[in-house]
Specification:
Layout (H helix, E strand, L loop, with lengths): L3 H4 L8 H33 L5 H38 L8
Helix pairs in contact: 2-3
Length: 99
């Protein structure tokens, strides 16, 4: 059985990781700014409206935890894209590497 993948064109077009890296970098900056604003608003809510019903305060806390988990996931994705770009730059290849 022949290896059809080895004979085919490269899996990633030229410079696709370079373009993706810039997009992910700008996106991570924007996500960080939006997250900082949401943290400030969360702290402001928590201090000003201490008499709100308990279920709503729990809901707001849950939303903040979901935001933190999403931010960690986005940073992990940005790190993996950067790692792939660095590996491809160092090896001179545009084939994907396993992480």
């Amino acid at each position: 059985m022949s290896n059809w993948l080895a004979a085919s064109a490269p899996l990633l077009p030229e410079n696709v990781l370079h373009e993706l890296l810039g997009t992910v970098l700008v996106g991570s900056w924007l996500v960080s700014i939006i997250f900082a604003v949401s943290v400030v608003l969360f702290i402001r809510y928590w201090t000003r409206f201490a008499t709100d019903v308990l279920w709503f305060r729990i809901l707001m806390s849950f939303m903040m935890v979901v935001d933190i988990v999403g931010l960690i996931g986005f940073y992990a994705m940005a790190y993996m894209v950067h790692l792939l770009y660095s590996l491809n730059f160092l090896t001179g290849s545009n084939q994907p590497h396993s992480i």
